[in-house]
Specification:
By secondary structure, the chain is mostly loops. It has strands spanning 9-12, 38-41.
Amino acid sequence: MPSTGADYRMATLERGAPLYTDRNYRIREVPLELEGEAFLQTANNDADADSGITVKVELRQSSTVYLADDARAD
C-alpha cells in the first residue's frame, strides 16, 4: 500500500488492461518481452500528491524490477 492510502494492486501487463486503479485509461501497447508480466497499478490521483510517495514492495523471489516515469509530469 502506498503512503497516500490510495488503492494500488497487482495486475497483468497486457494490451487493454487498465493502467490506473482510479481511471478508465487502458494500455495501448506492451513490449513483447514484458507481455504477461506483473505490474503495479497505481492511482492517477497520486500524481498530484504534495509530498513524495513511498511504496513498499516485498518480493517472494529474486526479481528484476522496472520503474517507469512519465517525464511530462516534471
